Amino acid sequence: MATKRLLIAAPLVVTALLLQSFFWVPTYENQSRGNPARLTQFIDATSGDASFLNPVLAADSTSSGVVSLVFDGLLDLDEHLALRPKLAERWEAAERAYLVVRPDAALPDGARADAATLRARVAAALGPDASAVRILPAETRTERHEVLLPGEGGAPRPEAVEARVRVPERLALELPRVLVDLDARLAPVLGRGYLAGFDPAAHVELPPGPAGEALRARLAELLPALEHNPVLTFHLRRGVRFHDGHPLEASDVRFTWRAFLDPKNLSPRASDFEPVKDVEIVDPHTVRVVYKRLFSPAVYVWASYGILPEHLLDESALAREMDRRGIAGAGRESFGLREAEFSRAPVGTGAFRFAEWRTDDVIRLVRNDDYFEGPPQYREYTLRVLPDPLTQEVEFRAGAVDMYPAQPHQAARYREDPRYQAFSAVGFGYSYVGYNLRREIFRDPEVRRALGMAIDVEQIIRFVLYGEGERVTGPYAITTDWYDRSVAPLPYDPAGALALLERRGWRRGPDGILAKDGRRLAFTLVTNNGNPQRKAIAAIAQDAWRKIGVDCQVQLFEWAVFLKDFINTGEFDAVVLGWTTGVDPDQHQIWHSSQIGAQRLNFTAYASPEVDRLTEAIRREYDRARQIELAHALHRAIARDQPYTFLFASRATTVVDRKIAMVERTPDGGERIVPLRPSPTGQLLYWFHRWRKFERPPRFSAEGA
Q1: CATH number of the domain bearing residue 666
Q2: Residue 554 buriedness (CB in 10 A; 0-12 / 13-18 / 19+)
Q3: In whole angstroms, what is the distance from residue 390 CA to residue 371 CA?
């Protein structure tokens, strides 16, 4: 009898539970049921965990995204990508220039070029463009520089070297603005051979050995006849505090510069700060940044990186941490920001404060109610680590995630689905196959070209991206003026690829694999797990190369392992990856040979004197038209060498919960609810601080609300 009652009651209990679930368990349409705090929490997802939450160390997209919420730069980019104030309320640009005095030289009228004569004539020639011209006495100084020497397998390796420089008497010119054409302005005064006739070798002592010889090629940099020192003066916003309550001061800016350059920190972004000669503290709220040479990206650099709190990371603070953690000996000598707890629990000035980081699980931030630009609408930002895209989509559709990067095959469907908001745009980036030039088989550019010719990129765009992408041929975002559209893509020509390899001496062996001098054309292609596009690209490339006699193995790794064990160390053969590029034409970090090494961004070890020259020239050039010319030349040079097989720029589609809208302030202090919109340049998250989630999809003024 009891069994009979149980059998009768069981369906009733199950039915009751299902009814309870229907009425009480939150669904996508009713996510805040029983949990109103869900409306104040933005939940995002990422396929790979962050590496470091520190602007000095962040190099991957996950880390950089979180860092941008916790830290602020001195400047920022507005919705039109123009510079605007941030931690600095205003800034000015000027220049200090130094001209070597050459008493042995004659001026155009035959007069001797002594200091007094030169000073008078330079001052007269520049007029109001020089606020002061002073004579500096001779001095001797010791400088430390980094050079590249041949390393293991022929790949360049960095080495420090010291030089003793005997600086002759010079003129110091104070200029109220940067005079890029100063050389031309002084030419009538100095004559044609004055600058070219100065020999820095007579004033520089180099140590014996390969390092000293490598530095000899840069003597003109050590002691130029005419030295440009652009100066940026930043006036810090008063009243800004770090999340621990400590006020922001000029010393924090100077400390940040030093942190980027500290060898113990191994910052992948150090090259952006290497051109800085000094950071001078004028007063607690004014800082003067002096550059070694013309450096056109200077202002943008200070808009790209957050400012660190010196009081939490200076030598005494790190010493206290090492004492507390019992770190001694060699570990103490090498201890830097990579080891510091701060890089996992950061303190910045940004709109969100750090709250929690559970590795490979979640990063949680909370609103900074004291934010100087006003607190964001959301009280909490949560970033969940969900490596599987399918899981991300399931969580998004269940309302457990607020934003989802749709896969290409889903883009059209989501754009038509009224339950969601979908935003599509070609981004500032591209995907590629990169070849490690430390490996002998990849050092021949014709081999790299042949490998690229074997891949049907149009097929990838059509079948992997479902048409949601554009073919690219070089290192710039296709949406910018820096991209040279005249560069033709590699043709898809497997037969031509094989013929090219055969011309380079590769012949099929008994196993059908190409070989040369006893070495098979075999390598491993790696990429990160959780990215279906990269996985598909790797499979397509592997199959394409197999058909022409290349033995390629594909390996996938979790994001953290992929970066730590392969990319950051340079221990890989070939890689499928992508870059997100900036708005300026500076590509020094990725392509200059000085950026080869552990934890640096030229991890394919590409070295080209022409590309080095072009990246340096772009950094010195202030004229936009000339910058475009140089960027196009850089594009062509890299496309010719094919260190990457450039693939495509994706048309990314981001899908957002329909219940999220933007809150704008009206002139009378009220609120106006408007639909989400990207910035004019396509940045969806530009106005993220205005986003708010509602219990139901809001009605806007256009709908008669």
Answers
A1: 3.40.190.10
A2: middle
A3: 36
